[in-house]
Specification:
The protein is an alpha+beta fold and about 650 residues long. Strand 6 (about 305-310) and strand 7 form a beta hairpin. The protein is elongated. The chain has 22 helices and 21 strands. It has 3 domains: about 1-20 and about 40-235, Penicillin binding protein transpeptidase fold (Orthogonal Bundle); about 345-580, 3-Layer(aba) Sandwich (Beta-lactamase); about 595-645, no CATH class. The strands form 7 sheets. The chain has a 5-stranded mixed sheet with strand order 2-1-5-13-14, with helices on one face.
């Protein structure tokens, strides 16, 4: 009865076996409209005999993957027990118990999915391989099939990809680095994370010492060997490379399996990207950065660099992501990894906090020489440009539109920098923030992705949205393996969001710091420029009700100034992109929430206007925050007309 049951179980498992050894089916990535972006079809595989593979490379793989390879019958109970103990001690999976033969059985015959049936089939096929082939033949097949990252299968393709040489010619250090890739090529690729690759190489060398293949002195010498990479070449050029690279990392993190499922499982990955917008962004980004590039650029990576991120504020879908000028030149994703000071683009978070703390857009503060104490030291802010001070009172609206540093720091000193930091985090900033007075001027480093996400609540009525890259992932049979849903939460008073937006609309006008793009924007839009000290970094974060876009430009070396302001360098890229990206959509207006009141005020004092005031304008307020004081400079009775709704 036991034999009969076992036979049925094995037969059931083998029904799920794919009979074509070594067949690899790439995964396909789709944009939000169903357009295919790219795939992971792997065509880089070179088979070589075991004799053409360096003995050191063979030893390195055995040491790190299956130390008892030549002594077990395909299944290693000792290895399984050892891995179980280490995983329990670590509280997570740090070591697997599969042998090289088991991995070969999986790679040659089985679909890359995690089921009980596949595990049973794997055990059956492991014994089959051990009976059919010698140990050397199993090792040879494994070394020719193992995935080593960036589409390379087998150690020969891997050695050429990373070091530009044959697998027979790799050094001990190179052999250890290649062997380290077998466990997780995405995480240990020196093209993605050199430090992780070097740390993994040391682990492999230690295992080789433990296995008796090399001495401790040889391991130390190999660990000091500097990797000499040949570069990825044009093989990594694909549509939306920085976006796809980020999505691949998320798929690997969520689904695991060391890359086999992603590269060989025939997955369908449905993303939030909009390829038409991506193409518009790449065009605007390229033209904009080319205009900032010196005539004779130096270095292997053309400078300056930059990033562009566009998010749908309604659901957090990342529609566009550019992490640099050329993925071929540099795989460093500046949109998600580069933390740089955003300058004055950070100010809206503090102004939102102020509006919720009793201030209004008409509140006035004086721009003049002032000294504040921050973290126990005196701090005297000045404005950039020809004049360091305005030497007059500015309303908060005017101060934000012209980006007055003095008024902004004064405001931060009243509400407290901790309050501004709290609002920034509430809206979507996740990077560490230093709660000093200078924080209002953007002195803590953030990423372009964070800035785009944190401006979304201003565009959508106060709702925080988490950036989302993947809608769903399905396997080759159409079964859904992963599904993401928008995460939206109300974090800001809709009236506060509307007032901030109304102010930031004037930034893109003849009065604002982005006046140079006012003629390019033919729809309701708002935004904020950002320029850091000495014009090192340039930012513009702007939005419509349909789309939020963050643009950053600067040199990778923070010591090298860009020499251009956010309005001059980043805003034109934003304007050109938004114009083309939204060309087929009718202009949308920002929805005015209930509880907003309009009043005529004196432009000079910010108080309710009187008939004697020479210069008046209309201002919007929260209903409970309408000013009651009339203009003290121009006397006479106040103008009391107003309304709760309307333009």
């Amino acid at each position: 009865m036991f034999a009969a049951v076992a036979t049925i179980v094995v037969a059931f498992a083998l029904v799920r076996v794919f009979p074509v050894p070594g067949k690899q089916v790439g995964s396909v990535f789709y944009d939000i409209r169903g357009e295919a972006i790219t795939s992971t079809v792997a065509g880089n595989r070179i088979e070589v005999p075991l004799s053409a593979i360096s003995p050191r490379l063979r030893e390195a793989v055995i040491a790190v993957e299956d130390k008892r390879f030549y002594r077990h019958p395909g299944i290693d109970p000792i290895g399984i027990a050892r891995a179980l103990v280490r995983n329990i001690r670590a509280g997570r999976i740090v070591e697997g118990g599969s042998t090289i033969t088991q991995q070969l059985a999986k790679d040659m015959f089985l679909p890359p999915e995690r089921t009980i049936g596949r595990k049973v089939a794997e055990l059956f096929l492991t014994f089959y391989l051990e009976l059919k082939f010698s140990k050397d033949e199993i090792l040879e097949r494994y070394l020719n099939l193992v995935y080593l990252g960036h589409g390379a299968y087998g150690v020969e393709a891997g050695a050429r990809l990373y070091f530009g040489k044959s697998a027979r010619d790799v050094s001990l250090g190179e052999a250890a680095m290649l062997a380290g890739l077998t466990r997780g090529p995405f995480y240990y690729s020196p093209y993605r994370d050199m430090q992780a690759a070097l740390d993994r190489r040391r682990v492999v060398l230690d295992r080789m010492v433990s296995a008796g293949y090399i001495t401790r002195a040889q391991a130390r010498e190999a660990a000091r060997e500097p990797p000499r990479l040949v570069g990825l070449g044009t093989r990594e050029i694909r549509a939306a490379p920085y976006f796809v690279d980020y999505v691949m990392e998320e798929v690997l993190r969520r689904l695991g399996d060391g890359g086999n499922l992603l590269y060989s499982g025939g997955l369908k990955v449905y993303t939030t990207l909009d390829m038409s917008m991506q193409r518009a962004a790449e065009k605007a980004f390229g033209i904009g950065l080319d205009a900032l590039t010196p005539e004779t650029p130096v270095g292997p990576v053309v400078q300056p660099q930059g990033a562009l991120v566009a998010i749908d504020p309604r659901n957090g879908h990342v529609r566009v992501l550019i992490g640099g000028r050329s993925f071929h030149e540099t795989q460093f994703n500046r949109a998600t990894q580069a933390r740089r000071q955003p300058g004055s683009a950070f100010k809206p978070f503090f102004y939102a906090a102020a509006l919720d703390s009793g201030f209004t857009a008409a509140t006035t503060l004086t721009c003049e020489p002032l000294t504040f104490w921050s973290a126990g030291t005196p701090y005297a802010p000045t404005d950039y440009g020809r004049f360091e001070y305005h030497f007059r009172m500015l309303t908060l609206r005017e101060a934000l539109v012209v980006s007055c540093n003095v008024v902004s720091v004064h405001l931060a000193s009243i509400i407290g920098p901790e309050k501004g930091a709290e609002y920034a985090r509430r809206l979507g900033i996740k990077s560490p923030l230093r709660p000093h007075l200078s924080l209002v001027l953007g002195t803590s480093e953030v990423t372009p992705l964070e800035m785009a996400a944190a401006f979304a609540p201003f565009a959508n009525g106060g709702k925080r949205v988490e950036p989302m890259f993947i809608v769903s992932v399905k396997d080759r049979r159409g079964r859904e393996l992963l599904r993401n849903r928008p995460r939206v939460s109300q974090v800001l008073d809709p009236r506060t969001a509307f007032i901030v937006t109304d102010i930031l609309k004037q930034v893109i006008s003849k009065w604002g710091t982005a006046a140079n793009i006012a003629d390019k924007v033919a729809r309701p839009a708002a935004g904020k420029t950002g320029s850091t000290q000495n014009y090192t970094d340039a930012w513009f974060v702007g939005y419509t009700p349909d789309l939020v876009c963050s643009v950053y430009a600067g040199y990778d070396d923070p010591a090298t100034p860009l020499g251009r302001s956010g309005g001059a360098a980043a805003a034109p890229i934003w304007a050109d992109f938004m114009k083309e990206a939204l060309a087929d959509r009718p202009p949308a207006t920002f929805r005015r929430p209930p509880g907003i009141v309009s009043r005529e005020i004196c432009h000079e004092t910010g108080c309710l206007a009187t008939p004697a005031c020479p210069n008046t304008r209309w201002e919007i307020f929260k209903a409970e925050a309408v000013p009651t004081e009339t203009c003290p400079w121009h006397g006479a009775a106040p103008v009391t007309s107003g309304h709760l709704q309307g333009p």
